[in-house]
Each structure stands twice: as C-alpha cells, then as structure tokens.
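pasting for ref
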Amino acid sequence: MYSSKDISVVIVTYNRPEEIKVALEGLKNQKSKPYEVLVVDQSENPETKKETEKYKKFIPRLRYLRSEIPSIAIAKNKGLKKTSKTKIVLFLDDDAALGPDYMDEIVQAYNTLDANGIFGFYDVGGYENSLLKESGFKLKEKIKSLFLLGNCNDSSFRITSPYGNTSTFKIRKPVKAEWFPGTDPSYKKEVFKDLEFDENFFGWSLGEDVDISYRIHKKYNGLYAIPASVSHHHPQREWTIERKIKAIYMNQINHLYLFYKDMPEMRIRFTWNLVGISLYRFLSLFNLKNSKNNYIEFEHYLRSLAYCIKNKEKIKSGDLSIPFK
C-alpha cells in the first residue's frame, strides 16, 4: 500500500516567482504531505529562489535546484534524478493549485487501480466558460474533430493522430488514458528505469508531456485520469506577434518530430492533420478581428511548413532548433 510519503514532487519553473507561490501554497496546505518537494529553477533572476525559501518551514524536505539550460525536459530529468528513494514522482506545474485532499486522492488511486501513472484531472472552471464564449468555438471543435485534431468533448484521453488528442472538461470517475497534460502527471518511478524526458525538446518544450506519457502508455500501459482537487491557473498574458511566430514554428517542428518518433504508423492521419490545420489557418484570414496579425501568422505557417519539408531529416534526427531567435 502506498502513502503520501512514497511521493516526490518535482516543480519546474522559469521566471515565474508569482506562479511558484500557487504550487507551493497548495503543497503547504496538504492534509497528507509528500515525502519531498524539489523546485528546479531555470530563472534568470533570484526571485523564485527567494519565494521558495519562504516555504521551507512549512513543507518538509523542500529543496531548491538550479538548471542552467532553459528546457522543461532537461529540468524534469534533473529533478527526477535528484529525488530520494521514493516510489512515485509527481511533476507539478508551478501554477497548479492543489486542494488539501489532493495527495490523498492520488494515493487512493494508486492503491485501488492497476496504475503506472495517474493524472489528477483539474477543474478548468472559468477557463471552460471563456472557451465556450469564444467566437467560433463550436466551429473550431467541428473542424478539429473532422481532421482528427482532437477535441475537448470526449470522455477520454486518447491520441487520435500526431497532432490530435481528446480530453474533456469534466470527469466523474477514473478513465484510462493514452496521454497526460503537463499540469500534474505522476508516475511510478520504476517506469523511468529505461525511459526519460526527451531532451531534444527545448525552451517550453512543446509536446514533451505528450511524448513521455504516450511512450509510457505504449510500453507499460496503466495510465489513468482521475477526478482530483486541483485547478490550473491560466494567466491572461497577451502574446507578442514575435512569440506567436516562434510558437508556430515550434508547433510544426515538434509535431513532425513526434510523428517520426512515436507515431510513424499514422502517416495518413498526419497528412490529414495538415490539411485541416491549413484550412483553419486559411479561414482565419477572413476574421476581421486582428486581420493583420492573421495574415502574418498564415505567412509564417506556410514558411514553417516549407522549413519542415526542407529540413525533414534534420528534424527526424532530433534537431528541433527554430531558424531564428
């Protein structure tokens, strides 16, 4: 039987001293504390360290680690290797707010399910409402479903294609999963005997959460999403057009890499994905709101596709660099 003392928590963060307080506050208020908490900080300033130090008197065995290379995947591997001889590792987003019963809920799941990994499904709350109110949300979901790009109206967590996965806004009982989001996935540490996070992913490592969880699913199975007392904060930050362009390139490059690495049998679905994404990008040109940015994004989407075609072998080998800073 497992207890909360069998759990190590790893939190990876980068220049987010306000967000780290959300995760640490939730851990501080747990009815059953985990054995240890490791904060792996990639920040360019000392503010996150200062915030972490404040919680050491409230959270047993709270440790602060530095990771100099800005990469979620590298930082998670470092945190994993530095954990004690516990049996379960929980990778917690710095802005994931845990309810006081969260650890007990996770432990109960490991004790009652034949699980190698547990994801505490979070309360999306107002985020769900904001999505539903978005102009064209239902049309977007229909396009996503048609082109196997996934949707959030499913009751499961399945991989439908290299670009697509299903999820839901709410679950009432444990459901089997093929992938986990990065909010609060936990795994039995024994699955990492011959697996680790792919360090080819850099920066915010788009896709690393799908990559590791899907590989664990294929090799070991036993992944479950469960109802749990956790909420995920979505800070309302306006992205600059430069950041959006960078994300467009990263999205195409990383998904091409995921296709070759994890899902080569889905070639037809991958091609169908690209048809759907291209159609969606094209239709966005007729949206008068932010029309200038939509044209810029569409242009760079086409450029990113051309880059992927030209550099297919380089990307396939694990070079996920973006052709600009």
